[in-house]
Amino acid sequence: MNETPLWASESFWKKIAIWVTAGSFVILVILTMDSLSKTGAGSKRVPAYAVINKKIDYQFKTALHKSMPVIGDNEFLFGKEYSEEEARQLVDLGKKTTQTKNCMNCHTILGNGAYYAPDLTKAWLDQGWISGEMRENMMVKFLMDPANNARTFGSNRKMPNLAITEQEAKGIIAFLKWMSSIDTNGFPYNFKTIEAQE
Amino acid sequence: MIEPVALQDFFITFFSAALIILAGASYALLFAWSKVNSHFRIKIAALVSYAVLILSVAELTRAAHFQGYWLIISMAMAVGYFFAPIGIWHLCVKTHADQDLIKTKGGRR
Amino acid sequence: MNTSDLNGIIPKSNRLLDKARTYLDDFKAWVNLDSSNLSTGQQLAVKYFTVAVILFFAQLLFGMLAAIQFIYPGFLYEILDFNVNRMVHINAMIVWMLYGFIGSIYWLIEDESGTGIVGLKWANIAFWVLTGAVTLVVLVYLFIQIGPGKDSSLWFINEGREYIEAPRWADLGITAVMLVFFYNVVATFSKGQWSGIGGVLVLDLIALVGLYLAGMFYMTNITHEQYWWWWVIHLWVEATWEVLVGVIMAWSLMKLLGVRRKIVQTWLYIEVALMFGSGILGLGHHYFWIGMPEYWLSVGGFFSALEPIPLVAMVVHAVYDAGVHAFKTVNHPALAWVVAHAFGNFFGAGVWGFMHTLPQINMYTHGTQWSASHGHLSFFGAYATINIAFFYLAIQQWRGGVWMAAGAHHAWRWKWALGLLNAGVVGMTIALLIAGYEQSFIERAVEGSTWGGYFAAQNEPSFQRAMGWRLLFGGITLAGFILLVWDLLTIGKGETRKIPTINQS
């Protein structure tokens, strides 16, 4: 019994375990408070929901080694200017719909989810929507009737009909537009937007 | 700030990262084994494993463009993976020190 | 459906029920297990194990369906779409592993505390409530699948958040059941005696339940929502679950190998320090790209580089034990699965994790088949293996403590089950690794992550081939599972040699 030095004893490691766990947790809590305060809707990294009234782009900044969202002039969604509260409600409907339709178990959102369908992080800016003018209409049609407006890119993988209403479709599009304005530390890398193409 | 891996360095990044862990483990394994069975060759093999680890860390540092404070990670891996197995070995020896001194009552079942 | 149909159905269903009862009785007679070999807590534990095995099967079945859809996208289109299959696949996995853990703890606390389970009646009710709730959730997943974009859908159908999709009513129900479980554990230790193992277990369970609460809230802000969502997922699987496995292993080492309590507990504390020390802030590697501040790149990168340290510690300790003490075991299959656990945990969590975790490379690998490759090997290696090992311990006791080591009958079954399951999972992992490498290269690096780039990568012949191999190895895994179940039901049947009692302190 006497041969066991302090640093190899049970009581020593019990204390270490408690201190390490508590210490890590306290640091995590502090970082959490800081992170949440820096990423509320309306912060520099996560714009206010009314950003859906603006033109959004995602451009590579050489000095930063990464792409950054660029918020431009007015570019109303569905031809309407939303107040912050109206925008929040619309984005909220869209966000909720992406959950209740279980989008995440085919798509990835901010890179998290399943890998059976494309990432939605910058879906609003994707070149697949051909041009800024056609985009909104194409997206609404696609969401409401994906089977007949399928965008399979030769893969034969079709999104199923998820009984999305027109209002829900508009909400999803608002959510996607808002999400594309979030500063994601340069993810996805080297992304070429619909704006860059025009 | 990070500089993502260049296209031509993809494979080497995965490879060197995997090799760090594998070499680290094989160094730990061989180090422990050399303590149980003090054979000269096992010690050499342990050191060779560690050399592989250092090379992999250097390669990863290059491929992943570590600079500034990111070099702390490279240092931590080079130093930490050298001393961790030694420390853990001593811990094993000391925690088991009185292993055979006391044999108390049998199992309840 | 008209009434005459209904009239025909009732006697028919009665006859079906009778038939089912006869089959069940025949099955019980064939299996021939004697529950009087088990304590009351252990009898509850084996109920949990039984459901765990059934859910394990569901995991494999729906995984197979999803794997087929990668190759034939029209398969079950608009009947059981990929998202449904994939959701059941991962939910069944999470839940069967939890069932395994809960069962293991009910199994060991009576022995560890030296008294019977306090509140056993409640524990039994909780088991049936939980199992009923899980069944209902799965039925809703399969037959209702999705709902309109309203709160009621989140409450009753699906929360749509990977791994914790269970609707909110089930969240509350699961929490209530967990509180009963928690009460059983705390009250049992309080009535009997506390130990280091008991203390770590209780604190870990508090964390486990508390973290689940963090995942119950709806938020419009996707960045905040994913922040809390990772608290649940990461701090479960990379911290609290690891410690739970540590507790189960610590007890098993004492019972099976006669390792002294003081040593086991010291090492449990060491493991807690290393696991939580690296794992809690290792959470940062999930915060690289979801909108969180840039310092998470450094925090996540640094602590991810530390996460293999506990695994290295295990390697050294294993060599020490093997070299210094020549251990004998009376349960070969359990020992073999523990060895599979050591390797699987090391490769799945350690090597596969570190290969794609640093932000400089994760920028490309995040959200690709890389994650699937890592997920398959690490969940199997870290958790499936240890649960299966415990199933073998349980069945040994259930059979009356019979010999399951050298010279046991039909040993080929567990050996082949072990081989097929491991080969299947490793094969899937390699196939997904190839797919992930190709996807991160073509879609992410070359094509810049557009939808066009995504499909270009998915259509590549090498990706398609990899998906074919994944399906094949999935089939091998399933074959291994079937053999495993057969072996668990029959191992030790007719064995007369008993195990010698092991001295421990």
Automatic annotation (TrEMBL), chain A:
Keyword terms, alphabetized: Heme, Iron, Membrane, Metal-binding, Transmembrane, Transmembrane helix
Top-level taxon of the source organism: Bacteria
InterPro entries (alphabetical): Cyt_c-like_dom (IPR009056), Cyt_c-like_dom_sf (IPR036909)
Signal peptide: none
Annotated coiled-coil segments of the chain: none
Claim: Transmembrane is one of the keywords in the record: yes
The keyword Nucleotide-binding is assigned to this record: no
UniProt domain Cytochrome c: residue ranges: 89-180
Transmembrane stretches, start-end: 16-36
Matching PROSITE patterns: CYTC
Single GO molecular function: electron transfer activity
Protein's name in the database: Cytochrome C
TrEMBL record, chain B:
Keywords: Membrane, Transmembrane, Transmembrane helix
Positions of transmembrane segments: 12-32, 44-63, 69-93
Name of the molecule in the record: Uncharacterized protein
Source lineage: Bacteria, Pseudomonadati, Pseudomonadota, Gammaproteobacteria, Methylococcales
Automatic annotation (TrEMBL), chain C:
Pfam families in alphabetical order: COX1
InterPro entries documented for this protein: Cyt_c_oxase-like_su1_sf, Cyt_C_Oxase_1
GO BP annotations listed: aerobic respiration; electron transport coupled proton transport; respiratory electron transport chain
Record's keyword terms, sorted: Membrane, Oxidoreductase, Transmembrane, Transmembrane helix
Entry EC no(s): 1.7.2.5
Superkingdom: Bacteria
Transmembrane feature ranges: 48-72, 92-109, 121-146, 166-186, 198-219, 231-254, 266-289, 295-322, 334-355, 375-395, 416-437, 469-489
Entries under Gene3D superfamilies matching the protein: Cytochrome c oxidase-like, subunit I domain
A single Gene Ontology CC term: membrane
Any GO molecular function: cytochrome-c oxidase activity
Name of the protein described by the UniProt record: Nitric oxide reductase subunit B
Species this chain originates from: Candidatus Methylobacter favarea
Lineage: Bacteria, Pseudomonadati, Pseudomonadota, Gammaproteobacteria, Methylococcales
